[in-house]
Amino acid sequence: MRTITRLLLILLVLGAIGIGGWYLTRPKPIVVTLHTIDKGRVESTVSNTRVGTIKACRRAYLAPMAGGQVATLNVREGDEVQTGQILLEIWNDDHKAEVQLAEAEVKAARARTREACTSAAGAEREAARLRRLVKDRMVSEENADIAETQAEAKQAGCEASRASSLVSDARVQVARATLERTMVRAPFAGTVAEVNAELGGYVTPSPPGIPTLPAIDLLDVSCLYVSAPIDEVDAPALKIGMQACVSLDAFFDRRCEGVVRRVAPYVIDTEKQARTVEVEVELRNPEDLKNLLPGYSADIEIALDAHEDVLRVPTEAVLEDNRVLVYEEATGRISERKFVAGLRNWNFTEVMSGLTAGERIVLSVGREGVKTGALVEPENGTDTAP
Predict the structure, then answer these.
(1) Is the separation of the CB atoms in 218 and 74 below 8 Å?
(2) Pick from 11, 36, 62, 228: most CB atoms within 10 A?
(3) Which CATH class is domain 27-43+307-383?
(4) What is 47-57+223-305's CATH topology?
(5) DSSP H/E element including 73
(6) 3-class SS at 357?
(7) What is the pTM of this model?
(8) For residues 259 and 215, is the Cβ–Cβ distance under 8 A?
(9) pLDDT, tens digit, for every residue of 110-152?
């Protein structure tokens, strides 16, 4: 009896040792992030291949048309200006004097015109009076002819004086145009982005083919757009007026009220293996323009098509050939399953068949050991939000 009892104790000890060894050496489940398949909106989109840039719809690099010393500098960087406002003026006292001289000549020419035309009117009345007296034989025909000739001559002098007055007016316009060449005016209302001139300094226009810094850089930040390159393969599907979302590194929120305003009519082939088409997306919602500055880096995502309330999976969970790893609740293991995909974008891929709503798939497909048959457990025991 003692022998049997001893044997049972030995067997129990050996069993406990075996169970303990198995427990210590058993494979540990891999912690993974799961996602429950649900329904929602899926869009087919096109995105830029390289980073885009926020630009102002209107930007002017301004400089005077004539070189000279800066006599007046009316703005600083950051100033708001109105259309036609004088921003900069080079020394132009001589041109102002020429304008004054031309205006004085106009006054003199108009006075001479009034004198000549008044005299012509008097001569014409005298000639008419003598012509009436000729009928009564109180004045000779010869005197009447002389009076008419003098009237015609004075009328010609009146017309010549009027033409001379027009010439004087034109000279004023020439003088004013010459004066205007010494000024820099705002071509539109905007914000002064940069000033590259100093009061008393010398500025010159850029020589042909030799770009120089503009005296004043003016931006209209009330209208902004994103210019970004799209792969040549995706470009044919794009049309002006398509809706687009804009993402910026400097902000967390996406701005999805953009509209395609231009698709370049040519392909950029600077990089032979990555040919692109430049696309512009304008931000038309005033709220989207808040805090944006020209020069920010930005990405665009243009919607080509959209399906509402369809079965979808996160695109990050999709492996090559439209495969996903499905979590089996009963065994705690994952298995690979292929599905038929529809529309897709960076966020979601539409499921046409092969998966059902409520099934749980692995999001963290890049973790070590995550493959078909692996034992897993949900991270923190929960799924990601749809």
Answers:
(1) no
(2) 228
(3) mainly beta
(4) Elongation Factor Tu (Ef-tu); domain 3 (2.40.30)
(5) strand 68-73
(6) coil
(7) 0.63
(8) no
(9) 898 888 888 888 888 877 777 777 776 777 777 777 878 887 8
